[in-house]
Design goal:
The structure is a single chain. This protein is an all-alpha fold and 140 residues long. It folds into 2 domains: 48 residues; 66 residues, no CATH class. Helices cover 72% and strands 3% of the residues. It has a two-stranded antiparallel sheet with strand order 1-2.
């Protein structure tokens, strides 16, 4: 079983997937910081200077806090501001991945166009001989 596991892990696809997951997690943190620290403050300033993460509706009469963290401690809340932030985070991440895939596909197409076309292989000797005979008969 250990040998079978070693064979499974040593396949290229598994290692590529592991690298992709690690890079994806790191990239996700970068996008999360971009959204939370750069984009959402600008959007918040445009819409009245409030932080979207603190937009919520209390679902309990016991909740009277002004910040989401405090409101969650007091009771149930509908945190739609956090959802907006996460949705925007997803849209930005999906768009960046789309741009990366598009760039790779364009590069592949460009490399395919630049690839030299291989000359046609010479026909086998018997086909060449038959073609020569056909051409001689056609001239007579």
């Amino acid at each position: 079983m250990l040998k079978e596991f070693q064979e499974f892990i040593s396949r290229g696809n598994v290692m590529d997937l592991a690298v992709g997951v690690i890079i994806g997690a790191a990239f996700g943190k970068i996008v999360e910081s971009l959204v939370n620290d750069i984009i959402m403050p600008i959007i918040g300033a445009i819409f009245g200077g409030l932080d979207f993460n603190n937009y919520f509706l209390p679902l309990s009469s016991a909740v009277n806090a002004t910040s989401l963290a405090e409101a969650k401690r007091q009771g149930a809340v509908f945190a739609y501001g956090s959802f907006i932030t996460v949705a925007l985070n997803f849209i930005i991440l999906a768009f960046i991945i789309f741009l990366m895939v598009k760039a790779v596909n364009d590069l592949r197409r460009r490399l395919e166009r630049e690839k030299p076309i291989a000359p046609a292989a010479a026909p086998p000797a018997d086909v060449a001989l038959l073609t020569e005979i056909r051409d001689l008969l056609a001239r007579k």
